[in-house]
Amino acid sequence: MKEIKKIACIGAGYVGGPTMSVIAQKNPGIQVTVVDLNQQRIDAWNDEDLSQLPIYEPGLDGVVGEARGRNLFFSTDVETAIDEADMIFISVNTPTKTYGKGKGQAADLKYIELCARQIARVAQGDKIIVEKSTLPVRTAAALKSILDDTGNGVNFAILSNPEFLAEGTAVADLHHPDRVLIGGEDEEAIQALVQIYAAWVPHERILTTNLWSSELSKLVANAFLAQRVSSINAISELCEVTGANVDEVSRAIGHDSRIGPKFLKASVGFGGSCFQKDILNLVYIARSYNLTAVADYWEQVIILNDHQKSRFAERIIQTMYNTVNGKKIVFLGWAFKKDTNDTRESAAIYVADHLLDEEAHLVVYDPKVSADQIYKDLDYLKTRSAEENRRLVTVVNDPYEALQEAHAATILTEWDEFKGYDWALIKKQMKKPSFVFDGRKLLDSASLRKLGFDYYAIGE
Ligand code: NAD
Ligand code: UGA
Predict the structure, then answer these.
(1) pLDDT reported for residue 1
(2) How far is the CA of 166 from the centre of ligand 2 (A)?
(3) CA nearest to 13, candidates 33, 41, 43
């Protein structure tokens, strides 16, 4: 079997960074080099101060601290890393296309193609190429064609090894994965990758399939997870008009072992860089094969999610006497979920945009997201000018300061610290009536109401 001595990973993002750190941690005999074009990102990965890593993930500092400099390296020298590696992971971004055919739905594969062309140009020896990025089914065929047609006559084996980690729990997910999925045709290459994971993952959790099943399974896994969230969010609206409580419904159905308790937490809508992108991609693929019923079915997951975000904003406006103009509304949380500083597609962005259309004055506090990022997210929408966003939105580092004289507090991210706040004190400092809109059903409704808050939660 081919022995892997050196690994390169192209893309030092939310996936490349943590995944390679754990592979290096668990395989001290293999040299792992993570490369990226983004110098700032690489500098942050190399920062002496482990609290300055470019992404926040509980436990990641410990893993990087253990392996970095020993057998884990971060660099911008992409070509040397490619040249030296026996195995190359491609972990670059695959965003939704914003132009041309498939705009707004298909995955943009330009970064993947650039990597393939660069690998083909540089590689002077045989390599195993591993798709770590989430890709449309049959991308491996395109990769193989580019590599073989533009390469230097060396041999490329292509494997699909999609990543299933969730942000906020990336290190735990990597240390104890439900499964590792490896798709491929070249048995020797498959076994080489199996060996790397077998350093810490039990063999029965390492699944091997053909390439297309592996590529498609990643999109399907995200689609099923997002579908559960949209399903319970649809029921949350029904709960609000019938007097049922969505948490109680989740608990009742989740006890059915066939349904299971996970991913049944109603929310202001799912966010994150992948659920929407991957479902749109699935929809696009189904449509491209003229599978209209299949495409329409999955598209509803996104439609419902958009509905959930805008209905939360509308509920705030209606409850506050149909006007939020000039009112101080505090956003507790901006990240798309707790324990991450990632804000991509966060529901908070869209709820904010809706309220800003109504000229609300927003004050945002998130324990891990910078003011710079929050303004970037709003500017990116291009709904209003950058000056207007800065006029209407203030970002603060102190939640108590934020809540002084506020008309309403809204919970957008389920950060644990929000539960521990002195809500009695906050009640005294807010304007009356004091509204709380809980988009995560995070706080204890009975005690907040007892304190005198007008408390509204999703699904209640
Ligand atoms: P990211 O944007 O955080 O990181 C991608 C990195 O690739 C960037 O730093 C970018 O500079 C770099 N890059 C792009 N082109 C390059 C090139 N030609 N050479 C060198 N570097 C290049 O993205 P991410 O969140 O890590 O996602 C990567 C892939 O993994 C996506 O396909 C995504 O769908 C998938 N995925 C993401 C998650 C997640 O939790 N974020 C989980 C599972 C799968
Ligand atoms: C998700 C999947 O869980 C990972 O398996 C996958 O690897 C990853 O996408 C990816 O491909 O990028 P992630 O988006 O990081 O991971 O986080 P999740 O925990 O899945 O949460 C996604 C969104 O759904 C968040 O906004 C979260 O708040 C929301 N959610 C989740 C709910 O509203 N309710 C739930 O019950 C669960």
Answers:
(1) 67
(2) 6
(3) 41
